[in-house]
Amino acid sequence: xxxxxxxxxxxxxxxxxxxxxxxxxxxxxxxxxxxxxxxxxxxxxxxxxxxxxxxxxxxxxxxxxxxxxxxxxxxxxxxxxxxxxxxxxxxxxxxxxxxxxxxxxxxxxxxxxxxxxxxxxxxxxxxxxxxxxxxxxxxxxxxxxxxxxxxxxxxxxxxxxxxxxxxxxxxxxxxxxxxxxxxxxxxxxxxxxxxxxxxxxxxxxxxxxxxxxxxxxxxxxxxxxxxxxxxxxxxxxxxxxxxxxxxxxxxxxxxxxxxxxxxxxxxxxxxxxxxxxxxxxxxxxxxxxxxxxxxxxxxxxxxxxxxxxxxxxxxxxxxxxxxxxxxxxxxxxxxxxxxxxxxxxxxxxxxxxxxxxxxxxxxxxxxxxxxxxxxxxxxxxxxxxxxxxxxxxxxxxxxxxxxxxxxxxxxxxxxxxxxxxxxxxxxxxxxxxxxxxxxxxxxxxxxxxxxxxxxxxxxxxxxxxxxxxxxxxxxxxxxxxxxxxxxxxxxxxxxxxxxxxxxxxxxxxxxxxxxxxxxxxxxxxxxxxxxxxxxxxxxxxxxxxxxxxxxxxxxxxxxxxxxxxxxxxxxxxxxxxxxxxxxxxxxxxxxxxxxxxxxxxxxxxxxxxxxxxxxxxxxxxxxxxxxxxxxxxxxxxxxxxxxxxxxxxxxxxxxxx
Length: 657
Fold this sequence. Notes:
Layout: H1 2-8, H2 10-15, H3 23-26, E1 32-34, E2 37-38, H4 42-55, H5 59-63, E3 71-73, H6 94-109, H7 127-143, H8 148-161, H9 167-188, H10 194-200, E4 242-248, E5 253-254, E6 296-297, H11 298-310, E7 317-320, H12 334-351, E8 357-359, H13 387-397, H14 406-412, E9 415-420, E10 423-427, H15 450-464, E11 467-471, H16 481-493, E12 498-503, E13 510-515, E14 526-532, E15 545-552, E16 562-570, E17 583-588, H17 589-593, H18 600-612, H19 614-624, H20 636-646
Parallel strand pairs: 4-7, 5-6, 7-8, 10-11, 11-12, 12-14
Antiparallel strand pairs: 1-2, 1-3, 4-15, 9-10, 13-14, 15-16, 16-17
């Protein structure tokens, strides 16, 4: 309840930041005005806030804090200094920060405009500080009823003056994301200052429970529905019964990558066509990719597919789990994203003709990135806000899929298809489980009914005796908590049907273990595993990679379990001066870790070994970074967190740690 938040955080409201240093000295100071009249004291201020908050007829005003009600410092130089000024852990004193905020607000509300020259020089600030600055500026701008264009100009100026990014990025990224954020705040009554808690959690402010709890309807277990075979079976394969499946994820193709261009450009991503040549030769981008925040070159993607072809593996099918487009989120277009999808599809057609391809959507397919509104949510009330993207997926993905999938792809970029007799694949749109998709602040209750649809698909597959493999982009442990809990419950219920889960998104090589929720005394009875395949892109500080799974194959009564997997990488350091790159086998799962099978219980046993055998864990840690550790090191505290992450397939639930 926003009124409760206003009363609860009244001290914080006074400074209009999360910092309340010196608040005691403010209680009886006439340093605030309302409609140009001084406010006598703190009691009058709170009374005015309470009255204004409850009696206003403007729903947006109900969501605004102090600045929303035209209450401003009489003079930004009069912000009181605490008797013993506290200093933040990064060395930034609160006083210049507060003065800056109020200077910006004063100028906005007095009708004057900031000029984007001579950046304000401040000590290094944390991401929370930055968030509060922009949130406060944003709130002040909205409260002044200025146009969206003017708000975007104000935020752009703040970005430049604070040196958050260089001028080029600020001038591009604020307009690109501005309309999205303004719509959410203006139309859906989100309080700007609450945004920092949403983005960064409790360390950056009050976390508002925007996401209500909800549950999908899961049918009771069928008779004799035991624990998944994944938990107990061993590898009984013979070579003529094995399916070989390629997974590639997080390609992030940068068609503008230019060897020799500036890899130290000072922007979030470098090496691309608009970066130009560096002043120092050592700052030039490498031939096949670079560890320094650069995405995947076109030539490297071509070399990867050529390497896959030369492996001479007969693939049953291919899984592509999202994120085709590069990370230049300040310089992206819908056309560019669609081109990336088509380019990757063309590579698949060229190098793996006739091989079925099953794809899942990633967060970088949205425009802006992470933006996946539901029908009716955008400012114009569009009932088809993602038609530009989903209609393209029907044509690109649909080449490998039955027409029965087109309706759900067009509706929400999810589908199910029968791969072989007895094996079904389900592609989930995990963008509706992504906390960075702020449209879920409006409505996060099973968006589009996807999870209930998923339950129905699994129930039908179970009745037919089919096994199911799931593909998606965001892994279960990184999903929005309420979505993740429902997903976890579904996997528990259908653990005998679900025999493979394949995700990406993190760019790292890892896995997450599912446990039997109904096991006595919270015992660790592992029942399923989610594989997180490493990225093709080298961002950040990684080698490019891809993976081949070996799966119990297409024969009567096949378990359809993952039997083993091989991960291949391109060592950028070793290939930086070569004319023809060499991809190599990094490791095979069973052989590398001495596992008897890839059952869920074997993964739990491996996690236990990590706890006791540091050399085995350090091998995993090397693979996590695709054999490029750089400066990364992992001590006992770090190791404990890694092992906990493996056991946290339900987001934010660490009971199995």
